[in-house]
Design a protein that fits this description.
Two copies of one chain form a homodimer.
Chain A: E1 10-13, E2 23-25, H1 28-37, E3 45-49, E4 55-63, E5 68-77, E6 85-89, H2 94-107, E7 111-116, H3 127-141, E8 148-149, E9 153-154, H4 155-160, E10 167-171, E11 191-195, H5 203-211, E12 215-218, H6 227-241
Parallel strand pairs in A: 1-3, 6-7, 6-11, 7-8, 7-9, 10-11, 10-12
Antiparallel strand pairs in A: 2-5, 3-4, 4-5
Helix pairs in contact in A: 2-3, 2-6
InterPro entries (chains A, B): Alpha/beta_knot_MTases, PUA-like_sf, RsmE, RsmE_MTase_dom, RsmE_PUA-like, tRNA_m1G_MTases_N
EC number (chains A, B): 2.1.1.193
Catalytic activity (chains A, B): uridine(1498) in 16S rRNA + S-adenosyl-L-methionine = N(3)-methyluridine(1498) in 16S rRNA + S-adenosyl-L-homocysteine + H(+)
Chain lengths: 246, 246
């Protein structure tokens, strides 16, 4: 890994492979960003990651208004791992859905699954937009991993297909108890966190969730949290108890 | 308390005292909201709270376009307590500062203190706007308590004046360890959580914070969190370990 070299100020996600001797042609958006918006040029340093090969320090070797080439110089951070945690959430208003996706990327979720519940006011979910938000969050938070955003699916279908080895943390407003439901759980298993819509789960959904052998209801306190707040709070408790925070 | 009566669909914060037999004159904004926006009228139910007297079910007894009167019918929720937790944060961009304040109200902070650190790009902080955000968050989250937003103060001045009985959770990116720094801490003490600016604390600030006998550095994992994410995550860990979630 690179030692004392100055860290690149700009950090971008690319699709291409990264490695010693590798050159990376830039698409039009990235070229515009680096050379017009950021006013960078040949010789300037850019950090790149692709979600697989770690973070590489690269140098601009060609710069045009609409194209350019970066050359890999050395690994600046090893490929990071995130715990096997999915965040499943019922889509809400656009700005808050964007926020949930951004936060899931920052908090280290491996996969993000929009789910349609009985009380979901499902505006159309644009998976490509949400995926772009994940990339942006990863660029910002210094992570080398970009979570995958799945196509929206109905809660019933998701549960019918569930791998029972994956534990499910389900936030239940009717409970008291904080994260105590997570203590005594064996670490190292795959997990998912399920956040309901603003209107909560229906009686039927709640009953079904509670009956699942892999479900762990957890309380997030006596106040009603918005879905976006609940998502961050639940991921924090999970990372702290079972993930890579401790 | 009221039993089986239907819960009011609209919930508002007012300044006036609430209690049995009390009538509450509406200001122009509230009258406009109830009678024009929500199209309510005489006989409709509204839930009111003022941060002191619990939540009251009231009924519209006079409705004009620009004024109106509500009459208290009965207590619908007792006055809630929040733990003695302050959230201290360095103001960031407007939208994210608004967000931090909203989340602090939802997560049950008692007081919110904007603080100016060495690396704070201090845009002007409008305390009245932030206070209005707190009120809105409390209206939404069903809480009866509205945290107070303090005037911004420099970190040095805040620490010089600090009551050493108040413990300080300070989020330190250079640490590992999750919430383990909080285990073994006696519950029931006053606390504060300090969230640094996007650029982090300066070396001097970090040194000073670490030397404080009441400071408890806590890690929020291996990824860099934005200040708004860190605020929610830190409050979640605190509420879960030492607050009213468990």
């Amino acid at each position: 890994m690179l030692g004392l070299m100055e860290r690149a100020k700009v950090r971008l996600y690319v699709d291409q492979p990264l490695g010693q001797g590798q050159t990376v042609p830039l698409d039009r958006d990235h070229a515009n960003y680096l050379f017009n918006v950021m006013r960078m040029g040949v010789g300037d340093a850019v950090a790149l990651f692709n979600g697989r090969d770690g973070e590489w320090r690269t140098e601009v070797v060609q710069a045009n208004k609409r194209a350019g080439v970066l050359a890999c110089q050395g690994l600046s951070a090893p490929q990071g791992e995130v715990p096997d945690l999915w965040l499943i959430f019922a889509p809400i208003k656009k700005a808050r859905t964007d926020f949930i996706v951004e936060k899931a990327a920052e908090m280290g979720a491996r996969r993000i699954l929009p789910v349609l519940t009985e009380f979901t006011n499902s505006e159309r979910v644009r998976v490509d937009r949400l995926q772009a938000h994940c990339v942006e969050a990863a660029e910002q938070c210094g992570g080398t991993y970009v979570p995958e955003v799945a196509e929206p699916v109905k809660l019933d279908a998701l549960l019918a297909d569930w791998d029972p080895a994956r534990q499910l943390m389900f936030c239940d407003e009717s409970l008291a108890g904080g994260s105590s439901a997570l203590s005594g759980v064996v670490a190292g298993q795959p997990w998912a966190i399920l956040i309901g819509p603003e209107g909560g789960f229906s009686e039927g959904e709640r009953k079904r969730l509670r009956a699942l052998p892999f479900a762990h209801p957890v309380s997030l306190g006596p106040r009603i949290l918005r879905a976006d707040t609940a998502a961050v709070a639940a991921m924090a408790l999970w990372q702290d108890c079972l993930g890579d925070w401790s």
